[in-house]
Write a structure and sequence with these properties.
Keywords: Ammonia transport, Membrane, Transmembrane, Transmembrane helix, Transport. It is a multi-pass membrane protein. One of its GO terms (biological process) is ammonium homeostasis. Pfam families: Ammonium_transp (PF00909). By secondary structure, the chain is an all-alpha fold. It has a domain of 222 residues: Ammonium transporter fold (Orthogonal Bundle), CATH 1.10.3430.10. The protein contains 14 helices and two strands. It has a two-stranded antiparallel ribbon with strand order 1-2. Helix 4 packs parallel to helix 6 and helix 5 crosses helix 7. The protein starts with 9 loop residues before the first helix and ends in a 9-residue tail after the last helix.
């Protein structure tokens, strides 16, 4: 079996990052935060970037997951022809937890510092409290859901619950009361959990649940401003608001007339449409140039070996014993050892099944 080379050289990676930054990200940021941005003029409010940062990037990750297609072995069929979800666990739960806490700590530089002035410590403190409560609420809700569905607590859903709470509160952390932050975090975790299961149902492989956490919870965070913003904080924090117009810019649940909710929905629709549209063009173009996905053999063998010149771990004995590594390839579906010659057969079978499921979003076999 021959596979048309599909690789991602460093110069292509740099070009993609620059293209994403200039063509997609900066445009949405300008709309949202610049005084001449049209969303700013529409009174769209996104304090820290639930929409302009997280929803935008989450939409890109969702498009990428669809266009690239699932990892080999992620979905298969049983004897009756039904699609089976073969969960591929992460590398290290301990490192995942460490990464989550690093992100959580970094969020205090992301949200409170967005007040932009060291003299506004009262506002920064309120933002920090809202950020903390939403993250805790999201993690706790995810823990309850994990026990409810899986009958035992699972680490990954709790991590995603914490992150979803952080994403959900980012837009509104400066204008909501602490108890509203708890509600926003809880709903964020619910949205993340259901969105993750929905992606699996549609056979969309998002290994990190980036789109449930960032797109769907970012969307909720943007909408939450129009529901939970208090009159007092809206008049103080929203640059286009005042005591006279506080009712207009307050959340619907806090005496608002719905105007701010309308502005938030317009912003959510505009940013998500912009990201989906531009990223479809970008990723479909990269796929047509065959620089989006690695060859099937490289994916089976592992990118540590094929792209970085080594194993993640050195499994050779330190003293004595054989030094030449034997062929210990295993089937990604069930872990069954594959003898010489069986690996290529498995690759071709998995490739054909995946191509049939996802409309050719994989390298062509010639």
């Amino acid at each position: 079996m021959n596979v048309v080379p599909v690789h991602s050289p460093d110069h292509f990676s740099t070009a993609r990052r620059k293209l994403w930054l200039e063509a997609v990200n900066l445009q949405a940021a300008y709309w949202t935060w610049a005084e001449h941005g049209w969303l700013y003029k529409e009174h769209f409010y996104d304090f820290g970037g639930s929409g302009a940062v997280h929803m935008l990037g989450g939409a890109a990750s969702l498009v990428a997951a669809v266009v690239i297609g699932p990892r080999i072995g992620r979905f298969s069929r049983d004897s009756e022809g039904n699609v089976v979800d073969n969960h591929i666990p992460g590398h290290s739960s301990a490192l995942s937890v460490l990464g989550a806490f690093i992100l959580w700590f970094g969020w205090y530089g992301f949200n409170p510092v967005s007040t932009m002035e060291y003299t506004r410590m009262q506002a920064a403190t309120r933002v920090a409290v809202a950020t903390t409560l939403s993250a805790c609420s999201g993690g706790t809700t995810a823990l309850i859901l994990s026990v409810w569905y899986d009958r035992h607590p699972s680490v990954t859903p709790i991590i995603n619950g914490i992150l979803s709470g952080l994403v959900g509160i980012t837009a509104s952390s400066s204008v909501v009361e602490p108890y509203a932050a708890v509600a926003i975090g809880a709903v964020s975790a619910l949205i993340c959990g259901f969105a993750s299961k929905a992606l699996i149902r549609f056979r969309i492989d998002d290994p990190l649940d980036a789109s449930p956490v960032h797109f769907f919870c970012g969307l909720w965070g943007v909408i939450a401003v129009g529901l939970f913003a208090s009159k007092e904080h809206a008049a103080e924090e929203m640059p286009f608001s005042s005591e006279l117009s506080a009712k207009t810019h307050a959340g619907l649940f806090f005496g608002g007339d719905g105007s701010q909710l309308k502005a938030q929905m317009i912003g959510a629709l505009a940013i998500s449409s912009w990201s989906f549209g531009t990223c479809c063009i970008l990723f479909l173009g990269l796929r047509s140039l065959k620089i989006l996905r690695v060859p099937v053999e490289d994916e089976i063998k592992g990118l540590d070996i094929t792209h970085h010149g080594g194993h993640a771990y050195n499994m050779e004995p330190m003293h004595g014993g054989p030094t030449k590594q034997e062929d210990t390839s295993t089937c990604p579906d069930d872990g069954t050892p594959l003898r010489s010659g069986q690996l290529s057969d498995y690759i071709e079978t998995s490739y054909i099944e995946r191509r049939n499921f996802h409309g050719g979003a994989v390298p062509e076999v010639v």
